[in-house]
Amino acid sequence: MTISRRVTALTASFLPLLFAPAFADSDVLWKIVHDKCVVQTAPCLSVNTAEHYAILKDLRGVAQVLLIPTDKITGIESAALLDPATHNFFADAWSEHGDVDARLPRAVPRDGLSLAVNAQQARSQNQLHIHVDCLSAEAQAALKADADRIGTDWAPLPDTVAGHQFTALRVKGEILGDFNPFLALAKTLKDPAKEMGDHNLVVVGANFADGPGFIVLTDVARPSMGGEDVQDHSCTIMH
To answer: 52: which residues sit within 8 A by CB, 6+ positions away?
Structure first.
């Protein structure tokens, strides 16, 4: 049986929960990872016990996968994410983008791949999960146009992206390495323990004039507007 068929079969029992209204069960992802994946891997694609995360194919989209901690971390507001000892889940998510590429005709270009975490009010699940998927064509074009105007200090983007007025930061390098977007955001806040949950946080691959890197985006969420808005779960840019 192929991976995709096996995952579909094993997640069948969770379909009613995942497609139910958000208020029906906000712990579905935690139940999948804690009760299933850490025991037998399936229905997850993989479980990294050393780094404390699992990769799950999202039921939405052609290629979208989710990185989900195997420890109980409710979301961006969790105090655990402010602890430097906590694993750099964004760096891990970037390293796992091959699971997205494997479901598409070819690998997603660096500037077409994104990692998104929704703010507390813009999510349906109370277990941290990073959406790993294609950027929308609109977001890709806007960020490509602004890329070389983004500096190493946080500053507002000149253009809106997917309806968001993001503040952006440039990070150089092929991989995120020791750069942790959660900690970088926390440093900008007066009271991270209270304010982190209000923010969307997105990391996008970039090709700057001086080499590869990343664009990190954040904003204070408005109702029903999450960081995931920059993504296109049909991966139109790959068609």
So the answer is: 69, 70, 71, 87
Cα-based distances in Å from 146 to 117, 150, 160, 174: 22, 7, 11, 19
Q: Hey, how many other C-beta atoms are within 10 angstroms of the C-beta on 58?
A: 16
The contacts of residue 50 (CB under 8 Å, 6+ apart) are none
> CB-based contacts of 224: which residues, under 8 Å, 6+ apart?
122
- Phi, psi angle pair for 113, to nearest 5°: -105, 140
The owner of tokens 């960081």 is: 227
pTM score, whole prediction: 0.90
By three-state DSSP, how is residue 43 classified? coil
Tens digits of residue pLDDT in 121-176: 999 999 999 999 999 999 999 999 999 999 999 999 999 999 999 999 999 999 99
In one-letter notation, the amino acid at residue 26 is S
DSSP 125: -
3-state helix vs strand vs coil in the chain, percent to 5: 35, 25, 45
The CA-based diameter of the chain, rounded to the nearest angstrom, is 52
Domains for the chain: give ranges and CATH numbers: 3-238 (3.30.428.30)
Task: Transcribe 61-96 into DSSP letters.
Answer: SSS-EEEEESS---STT-GGGGSTTS--HHHHHHHT
The full DSSP string for 184-218 is: HHHTT-S-HHHHGGGEEEEEEEEEETTEEEEEEEE
> 68: which strand partners?
54
State the Cα angle at 110 between 143 and 108, rounded to 5°: 110
The residue count of the chain comes to 239
